[in-house]
Amino acid sequence: MVEHSIYPENQEMVITTSQVNFFYGQTQALFGISLLIPAKQVTALIGPSGCGKSTFLRCLNRMNDTIPHGRVEGEIFINAKDIYAPGTDVVELRKEVGMVFQKSNPFPKSIFDNVAYGPRIHGEKNPKRLAEIVEQSLQQAAIWDEVKDRLHANAMGLSGGQQQRLCIARALAVGPKILLMDEPASALDPKATTRIEDLIGELRTNYTIVIVTHNMQQAARVSDYTAFFYEGQLIECDQTPKIFTNPRQKQTEDYITGRFG
Amino acid sequence: MNNTADKFILLSLRLITYAIVLVVGYILFDIIRNGFSALNWQFVSSFPRRSGAAGGIFPAIVGTFYLVVGTIAVSLPLGVGGAIYLAEYAEQNRFNSLIRLAIITLAGVPSIVFGLFGLGIFVLFFGFGPSILAGSLTLACMVLPTIIVASEESLRAVPKGFRDASLALGATKWEMIRTNVLPYSLSGMITGAILGIGRAAGETAPILLTVAAFYLPRLPKSVFDQVMALPYHLYILATQHPEAERIRHMQYGTALILLLLVLGLSLGAILLRTHSRKKFRW
Amino acid sequence: MAKHMQHDIDNLKAKIIAMGEAVEDRVYQATLSVINRDPVKANAVIKGDREIDDMEVEIEEDCLKILALYQPVAIDLRFIVAVLKINSDLERIGDLAVNIAERGLFLAGQDQFEIPFDLSAMVSLAEKMVTESIDALINHDVRLAHHIRAKDDTMDAMNREMYSKIKEMIITDAEQVNILMHVLSVGRHLERIADHATNIAEDVIYLVDAQIIRHTPELYDE
């Protein structure tokens, strides 16, 4: 259970989850997760493999809907709307809540078409407007300078780190307020990882970011708040410096000092 | 495994491959050698005379062509549609496993059985009579499993990442399939179509009972007409014609034309596939 | 990776404890040399300072290595930080023991004199505080650490008492002023030793409770 007191007085909460359970068929993967995600901050979800952090992340944009026999209990409010209420427009939700995946997955189209994919799907046809959106998104993802002269080249020709930044630009192009990142740098070399981390620091001013990472130093470096998951439960959530200097739960301490996991 | 065993296996595999090529090469060579003399513009463009012992095979060419087009027109949408359902929408349950089993079984059904089936359902029950329509539908049934399997494979080959990314950007399921899965599975589907074309053009038994006429010296006016067809024409010339011995060259010529027709259609499809592979490479 | 780090941390623990015990011993020998006017003991302490300095350098290098290689967090991090500070406090105590030994050397060369107040009480209090601060570190004993903080006040009181007594004596017995000044120094050094032992106690509290309680004068009430 997370206490409000770890957040400053007037902190706005963008996501509120309450007693969220998740089931894969008969198997329960999440147990009573109640977590707050503060606006325009970076919240990191850490924990050993299989602890449920990715499952939880995918509940936030209902990507878990694609899992056969997946079931959610409890409530998840994003911007004060219950996203699992019947009649919720999942397409609108996913415009609000973007996602970047662990393995960068640019479409085998041009760089321009990759970024323009989202806006086009949502009905934007005006070429001028599309070009603006593409440029803005690539700028925000700190990759504009590297690709501005070859927007029509195939995206598969980019390096791993560039592809991931392209995927970030693609996600930003639909105009989300929240960005979910599932181990975005785990497949990248250290230099590319640093760029992604720097980028997260910049994006923070305009977006709320939730990042799943198995790299604790990364969580320590980029996040404002850290939530520790273990075996489907939320063990502890606190300001990141506090978690890494003096966590409240012994389990948390054992995990971050490498005693297990 | 030691080096000798490796070398031995490599050699054996090479020999097997060459043997296959050799056999195919010989067949082609034989057909070309024997049928070449029959090839001329007249053969290809004129109607048969003297029950096929003289004249040309133009209506058979047209007939086969129409049948192929008809078959593909029916089986491709159905097959692709079925494949999309199986690959993207169907859950892993008993019922769908049964469907897959049915498809695989269908692929193993002998072509004469399809012919009888076509006769019973399309020619008699629906009352289409022997016609291009009945023939195409029958051939389509025969070719359907191939197309479904090839299409499903190519759909499954598209990485999950494309689907996830697409959905996460706010596409609906069908939008995701239409814009981000289908284009990349096109080449696989075309491969299925190529295989389908080959079978549709060359099978004799299914068209035997449902559409083919031997001596029909005019072109069809509608889908309800019968047509001549190359495989059937070849069959009759070779087995039942009173002058079979004497018109060997015409038989081989027919076979050659059939081969060329199938090759031509396949080539067209291959070009299409190459183009779509280049465009949607991943 | 945790195994290597744990191994290095355990080694570090052993070293800081060894240094603590060595410094304890120096203080004991130095104060003995004053009370018994024993120049041999005094010289031994003075010469032995080199060893203490070497230990300090080694421990600091080990700490840096662990920080650089393992980026420890939470309790491991607090441990390293505590060891760095305790290391420095112990080295200062060692220096103060040398200062006391130097006074002992001087006093040994003087005629017998009477120290009109209980120097041994201060001596044993200082020794006790050093010993207990090391114990608190070994056992992560926060209660003991708080007691040490309380004792520091006692030491300060004894120091003030000594100061006024000696002031009196200088007025009444002016010839002994040299000796008395040295005795005063010894007292001051003991008081400084107690301060450092208190610092060590506070570092132990930080290590265990993650509370930085320096500069808070309240006493721990049980």
- Structural category of chain A is alpha/beta
Succession of helices and strands of chain A: EEEEHEEHEHHHHEHEHEEHH
> Approximately how much helix is present in the residues of chain C?
over 70%
Q: How many whole angstroms does the radius of gyration of chain C measure?
A: 19 Å
- Could you say which structural class the secondary elements and strand pairing of chain C correspond to? mainly alpha
DSSP, total strands of chain C: 0
- Rg of chain A, Cα atoms, Å: 18 Å
Shape of chain C: elongated
Tell me, rounded to a whole number, the average pLDDT of chain C.
89
- What proportion strand of chain C? under 5%
What is the H-and-E element order of chain C? HHHHHHH
Shape estimate of chain A = globular
How would you concisely characterize the structure shown here?
The complex is a heterotrimer of chains A (261), B (282) and C (222). With 261 residues, chain A is of the alpha/beta class.
Topology:
The complex is a heterotrimer of chains A (261), B (282) and C (222).
Chain A: E1 13-24, E2 27-33, E3 36-38, E4 42-46, H1 53-60, E5 70-78, E6 81-82, H2 90-96, E7 97-100, H3 111-121, H4 127-140, H5 144-147, H6 160-172, E8 178-182, H7 190-203, E9 208-212, H8 216-222, E10 225-230, E11 233-239, H9 240-245, H10 250-256
Parallel strand pairs in A: 4-9, 4-10, 7-8, 8-9
Antiparallel strand pairs in A: 1-2, 1-3, 1-5, 5-6, 10-11
Chain B: H1 3-35, H2 41-45, E1 48-49, E2 54-55, H3 58-89, H4 94-107, H5 111-125, H6 132-156, H7 160-168, H8 173-180, H9 182-202, H10 205-208, H11 230-239, H12 248-279
Antiparallel strand pairs in B: 1-2
Chain C: H1 2-35, H2 39-47, H3 49-70, H4 74-108, H5 119-139, H6 142-172, H7 177-209
Helix pairs in contact in C: 1-2, 1-3, 1-4, 1-5, 2-4, 3-4, 4-7, 5-6, 5-7, 6-7
